[in-house]
Hints:
The chain is an alpha+beta fold. The protein folds into two domains: 22-102, MutS, DNA mismatch repair protein, domain I, CATH 3.40.1170.20; 103-202, Trna Endonuclease, Chain: A, domain 1 (3-Layer(aba) Sandwich), CATH 3.40.1350.10. Helices cover 28% and strands 23% of the residues. It contains five helices and nine strands; from the N terminus they run H-E-E-H-E-H-E-H-E-E-E-H-E-E. It has a five-stranded mixed sheet with strand order 5-6-7-8-9. Strands 3-2-1-4 form a four-stranded mixed sheet. The radius of gyration is 22 Å and the shape is globular. The N and C termini lie far apart (80 Å).
Amino acid sequence: MADNQASVDSLQDTNPEEPEISPPYPAVLSGSNVLIWDAKALVGNLPPSNQFGSTAQGLPLALLPEEATILLEEDIIRLELEADPTPTGGVAQECHIPVWDWPRTPRDEIKLKLYRDLRAKGYFLTSGLKFGGDYLAYPGDSMRYHSHYIVTLVDWDTGIDPFTLVALGRIGTSVKKTRLLCTWNSLKGRFDYISLSWAQMG
């Protein structure tokens, strides 16, 4: 028994500790997605006011394009290409440094501005695609709070037609959330916000 315990202790002593990871943390570029496999390092080492993503769905943590852009700008993550498990003919492939090309369109640029503006106002943001929006806005950590708003970016020039407006309002009300319509006011250089919710009448 003593010999067995000694063997276990010996293995534990010779097992090297995992090195601490410091920023920039590795992030894998898979297609157009940025994935974090060591989410504990990323989430655990950022101040609460600067948390990104959520590990509620398990790993890998998929970042929003806005999150990836900001984290790259702040040198918190670095991009790596997804490993190719089956190299052609066993020949080493040429290594390319991944390039992050988002935002790609004028709307992407406005979305990035909107993301920054809402984060500056204290909201935590996740994807709102499930509810027909651009983001879900939480008053704090999404693991502790329910989202208050379904955030929808509306083009300043084209506006929004009445049928779409009614549909957006009804969807928000059916899931007990307020629809937050946001548009970039280029004349004032700021976002204008309108909250939309249905109230029972009669």
